[in-house]
Every structure is written in C-alpha cells, then in structure tokens.
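User: Hi! I'm working on a homework problem where we have to compare a predicted structure to a textbook description. Could you give me the structure for the chain below?
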Amino acid sequence: VATLPPAERERLEPLPPNVRAVEFAPLHALAATCSAVINHGGWGTFLCSLSFGVPQVVVPTWFDNVLPARRLEAAGAGLHVPPEQADGHSVLRAVTRLLEDPSHTAGTRRIRTEMESSPSPNRIASRIREITERHRHA
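Assistant: Happy to help. Predicted structure tokens:
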C-alpha cells in the first residue's frame, strides 16, 4: 500500500498489480499487517513502525530525520538510504535485505520491547509532580 496524495499518484508510472495506491490510510492499521515499511523518517511513521516491530527503510527528507535513520540502522532494526543515493534500485535492494534477513525484524522487536518497558508520559509526569511536591518547601 502506498499512501500518496492524488497529485503525486498522477505523476507515477503504472504500478505493479501488487501495489495499491491510496490517499490516506491509518498507519496503525497498516503497520500491523506489514513486513517492512519504506518512509521518509517522519517521527509518526518512524515510531509507529517501531511500535509494531516492523523493520524500515528510511530515506530521510529533513535534517532531523537523518540521525534516527542512522541509529535505526546501527541498532540492526532497519536500513538508511541517503536521499542522494535513493532510486528505485537502491530502495528495492534495501527492502529485499529487510525481508530476507530476519535480524532486522529481531532488531526492531528488541526496540519495541524497550519502548514498551519504558514508563508512560503520564507516569513520568506524576513522578515529577511527586518529587516537586516533596521538595517544594525544602
């Protein structure tokens, strides 16, 4: 499934029969069914894919997407393709590596387990409040 706005879909060559282009799909619904995700490294897609244990090929498009893409690759949870090297062949090679090498899925699932064991923002905020209240008058 490729999520693209209509103007971008019109610019594409005909898609293979196993590719479906849609304007919008809720990522959490798609991620649960994916073996791999190709994305630009935006935080929503990046973290959603990690939370579902799905390895990623990241082609960063903004300056703040490069470091997470590199760290993802270093952690063995996906691959980083620099935008200047990204073309159909390089992305296909990267996706093929993800699908053929189970270590990427294992790396992603390791990160998912770490994420799940981290305290929630609500728990952190509650703890900060407790500490603040205890030391307010000290």
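For your comparison, note the following. Helices lie at 6-11, 27-31, 43-51, 63-74, 88-100, 102-117, 121-135. Strands lie at 2-3, 21-22, 37-39, 56-58, 78-80. Good luck with the assignment!
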